[in-house]
Design goal:
Helix content is about 30%, strand content about 25%. It is globular, with a radius of gyration of 20 Å. It contains seven helices and 17 strands. The longest helix is centred in the first third of the chain and has 22 residues.
């Protein structure tokens, strides 16, 4: 929305979009409230990220989070923002955050029917060098009777009601799916609203980019090594794939969604269970990918079919364009025998 151009008087904001989707689904409005509260948290985090250097929010906060990463001040701030905003929407009962060892049970007087798993600031090791970072979330419905507890969050990704991520890059973008395709919204700082910019996004069937940390090459299993060889030195006369790796999951997955190709964070000798977390990294991204007609696999099975056993469980993940992921699966299966 430029200052000089025509002013759009019927702009489709994220809030409006979510309200319309809720009305179509004859919902109670609880999910709408929840998504709006996440949206508010994302706007606040976006502002904090932009001001971080000036406001002295960089640097280590002094403790280490449950998965061993040193906690940055922005992480702490983002975590508090997401928790407080979600609680204030009266729509959730259990929250799982990357920053908290145990699930957070919402106070009874503020409880609703949804469970939210989130990574408040993914890629936070990149904060100090201004590389893109993001927020990832997945929303589930409580399926049990009785008091909410941590076990309520241990649902396979197939049960996701809505999932998305925010990317704090050259602009702030929110990518959201409520199970009816994927939509992208850009934050317009002039009016402080997310505006719909890409409706019903679909990933390319096959891409030209592979993305993984090749610094671990000496620890890769043979299936990954063989797959990379095929991408770098194709035997069929096709052009080799380009390599892109930011090291910030939201940035790498978003590029994969927009340009096509494949993102891999596979198991290796050092991390036989993989490194990325199922509940608040792999599941939301797998949900978005499948909604955009892509795929997400561990090699052995679809990410969304995994039955979680613990809230910070790690899994291998390979996601992206369906033809590329299918090619990796066939190599994985060959080595599995």
């Amino acid at each position: 929305m430029s200052d000089k151009g025509a002013f759009d008087t019927n702009v489709l904001t994220l809030t409006r979009f979510v309200l319309e989707e809720g009305r179509k689904a004859h919902g109670t409005g609880e999910l709408t409230n929840l998504l709006n509260s996440i949206c508010t948290a994302v706007k606040a985090i976006s502002t904090a990220v932009r001001k971080a250097g000036i406001a002295n929010l960089y640097g280590i906060a002094g403790s280490t989070n449950v998965t061993g990463d040193q906690v940055k001040k922005l992480d702490v701030l983002s975590n508090d923002l997401v928790i407080n905003m979600i609680k204030s929407s009266f729509s959730s009962c259990v929250l799982v955050s990357e920053e908290d060892e145990k699930a957070i049970i919402v106070e009874p007087e503020k409880q609703g029917k949804y469970i939210v798993c989130f990574d408040p600031l993914d890629g936070s090791s990149n904060i100090d060098c201004l590389v893109s970072i993001g927020t990832i979330f997945a929303i589930y419905k409580k399926t049990t009777d009785g008091e909410p507890n941590e076990k309520d969050a241990l649902q396979p990704g197939r049960n996701i009601v809505a999932a998305g991520y925010a990317l704090y890059g050259s602009a702030t973008m929110m990518v959201l799916s409520t199970g009816q395709g994927v939509n992208c919204f850009m934050l317009d700082p002039a009016i402080g609203e997310f505006i719909l910019v890409d409706r019903d996004v679909k990933i390319k069937k096959k891409g030209k980019i592979y993305s993984l940390n090749e610094g671990y090459a000496n620890q890769f299993y043979p299936d990954v090594t063989e797959y990379l060889q095929k991408k770098k030195y194709p035997q069929d006369g096709s052009a080799p794939y380009g390599s892109r790796y930011v090291g910030s999951m939201v940035a790498d997955v978003h590029r994969t969604l927009v340009y096509g190709g494949i993102f891999l964070y596979p198991a290796n000798v050092k991390s036989p269970n993989g490194k990325l977390r199922l509940l608040y990294e792999c599941n939301p991204m797998a949900f978005i990918m499948e909604q955009a007609e892509g795929m997400a696999t561990t090699g052995a099975m679809n990410v969304l079919d995994i039955q979680p056993t613990s809230i910070h469980q790690r899994v291998p993940v390979v996601l992206g364009s369906p033809d590329d992921v299918q090619e990796y699966i066939s190599i994985f299966k060959k080595h599995e025998k």
